[in-house]
Fold this sequence. Notes:
31% of the residues lie in helices and 31% in strands. Helix 1 crosses helix 3. It has helices at residues 9-34, 96-105, 119-132; strands at 41-45, 50-55, 58-72, 77-80, 114-116, 137-142, 146-157. The chain is α+β, with helices and mostly antiparallel strands. A hairpin with a 4-residue loop joins strand 1 (41-45) and strand 2 (50-55). Strands 1, 2, 3, 4, 5, 6 and 7 form a seven-stranded antiparallel sheet that branches.
Amino acid sequence: MEDGTPHDHSDWDEVVLAARERARPRQALMVERYGLSGDVQYHWSLDDARITWSRRGKAFLTGRLTMIGSVSLPQQTWLWAWANESLPSAVLGDIEQVRRFGETNGFPVLPWPGFDYDPELVAEARMVAASVLDAEGLWADSTDDAQLHFAIHDLKPVAEAP
């Protein structure tokens, strides 16, 4: 899946480091501020690009999702959401910005439709995507044969019904 395009690894390393430094405190703040640990359940939908967290059956937080990409566990490959024709348009959000950022800056991993699965490269790609998309946080979920990776935006507490 790689096209062999050379790129400046030191520039990529700098972008990844900056994205990590941005993502870690945002992720920690999101989890702490909204209580997203412990006995929390969640439900997400690709069709309307939403995620909702609940506790003891009561929804307390909702947000908008942008699918970043997915890992096929049987094939051991990563596929960017922008290259996945089976996804509803709502969940793609502004993911094209990530591809364009890669093209503009000569970071081939971002405009490649996919690549062989490497956990570190997937982590780097997720964090850079979150930075480019100015996400509030990252979320991942797994099925038997796939890992799904999302950026989270527009978090809002769910109003209590009167």
